[in-house]
Amino acid sequence: MEKQNTTKIGNEVLLGIILALELYALPTQFYLLIKQSEFTFFGVLVRFFSFFTILTNSVVFICSAFNLFGRRFKISAFFRKNTTITAVTVYIIIVGLVFNLLLRQVVDLKGLHRIVSEIFHTVVPILFFFYWLFYVDIEKISFKTITLWLIYPIIYVVYTLFHGIYTDFYPYPFIDAVKLGFPTAITNGLLVLLSFVILSYVLIFVSKLKNILIR
């Protein structure tokens, strides 16, 4: 009983920290974008949510909020499922990996820009992974589930490529069809999707391993 209470407290504290970080970083990033933008409010809103980083951190915020406060709502059952939390964990880890492996060396962020970037790309991915690893209930996950998990990143890649055709705006240099050419941008997009598949297999394997060890 004492162990369960300790686990629950740790769970809630970790989710609370993640929520607090997102509550600070998401509005701050939006403010910074408005401050330096010549677009209308709607234009800034579209550009803001054109970044996979913003979309995924928003999903983390929603998932964390429902797990911490929203148990009385029916939709919270979806966000408390192991499959949902594992999928969100895959998404946010990819956010961290892509930035730290591909983009960190090509951006020079300072001040608030750097603070919110570290929250989005380093702190939250690590904390949410720990939440998934230590506090999420064990549940069998089929490898076939990966197909459903890919819907979100596939839609994002397709939208980004076609949105860029009409606006010449690509949020990430590795899918910038103007500079790289469409074939290269598509290839890079497919490689990113492949990374989702690989990481999904890894996390499902870890989940199955946890299930075996607990038994």
Give your account of this protein's structure:
- With 215 residues, this protein is mainly α.
- The protein has one domain.
- 78% of the residues lie in helices and 0% in strands.
- It is built from ten helices and no strands.
- The protein has helices at 2-35, 41-48, 52-68, 76-80, 82-103, 112-135, 146-149, 151-167, 177-180, 182-214.
- Helix 3 crosses helix 6 and helix 8 (151-167) packs antiparallel against helix 10 (182-214).
- The mean pLDDT is 90.
Short characterization:
The protein is an all-alpha fold and 215 residues long.
What's the layout of helices and strands?
Elements: H1 2-35, H2 41-48, H3 52-68, H4 76-80, H5 82-103, H6 112-135, H7 146-149, H8 151-167, H9 177-180, H10 182-214
Organism: Flavobacterium phragmitis
Transmembrane segments: 12-34, 46-70, 82-103, 115-134, 146-166, 186-206
Keywords: Membrane, Transmembrane, Transmembrane helix
Keyword list:
215 residues, mainly alpha, 10 helices, 78% helix, globular, transmembrane, Pr6Pr-like
Q: Quick one: overall form? A: globular
> How many helical elements?
10
Rg from Cα = 18 Å
Total strands: the figure is 0
Helix content: over 70%
Structural class: mainly alpha
Poorly predicted runs:
none
How many domains is the backbone divided into?
1
Task: Spell out the helices and strands N to C.
Answer: HHHHHHHHHH
Mean pLDDT figure: 90
Biggest sheet descriptor? none
Instruction: Give the end-to-end Cα distance, rounded to a whole number of Å.
Output: 19 Å
| Percent of sequence in beta strands | under 5%
Organism: Flavobacterium phragmitis
Keywords: Membrane, Transmembrane, Transmembrane helix
InterPro entries: Pr6Pr-like (IPR049713)
Protein name: FAR-17a/AIG1-like protein
